[in-house]
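User: Please predict the structure of the protein below. I'd like the answer in structure-token form so I can feed it into my own downstream comparison script.

Assistant: Understood. Taking the following sequence of 108 residues as input:
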Amino acid sequence: MRRDANVIGRAVAKLRYQKGWTQADLVGKLQMLDCYMTRDILASIETQRAPVTDKHLEFLSEVFGVPVGAFFPPKPHFAGRPVGFTQDIRTRRRRRPRRPRKARGGTR
């Protein structure tokens, strides 16, 4: 699995931390709602090693009391300007070409 396939793992960990719950607490609350979840599965979700199913997402939304959209990162806002123009991107300075060295006084 690609690491970017799970974009909500960090949000789950953040919401759990804000509530003051341990992973075991969250797993217990999910199991009370008949959601199959173990602490190992939750740890893999939070560290983005495992994908999140749509059912897990629904149960997490219900447990935390937030809409499903709260788990996803916000879309970037570019203030109406198109992206990709060179004036928007800082580039590193190019080095000046080296000047040829002057010949030192010596025998030819």
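That's the full token string. The first helix runs from residue 9 to 19.
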